[in-house]
């Protein structure tokens, strides 16, 4: 439970740098698609927690796939790289939650650290993810 709270806090951290600039509509569209996927994690976590039937492996893997698709369409290489880093960290977190340890064990802690770093990079290029 603590890990989910940390993850939620990490992906929803406000950043000081806003998305924008003359990199074209595709950058903004890609950023918005990735932000929507990130926001869906918090929404689905809340819904799953209410039922007690949480499948965080699926939540993280689905969000990673959506982010990876949006990142792939970005014209801006830095946005593409930042999105891919977030997706990779979420995939790693999903794999950690497949283990027999319900907390995800040390692999989940490592993945959360990578996600924190990736989220910071993402927000530098796309701006904050606002709930």
From TrEMBL:
Secretion signal span = 1-20
Q: Does the keyword Signal apply?
A: yes
Q: Origin, by domain of life?
A: Bacteria
Q: Which PROSITE patterns match?
A: PROKAR_LIPOPROTEIN
Record keywords: Signal
Would the keyword Signal be found if you checked this record's keyword annotation? yes
State the protein's name.
Small secreted protein
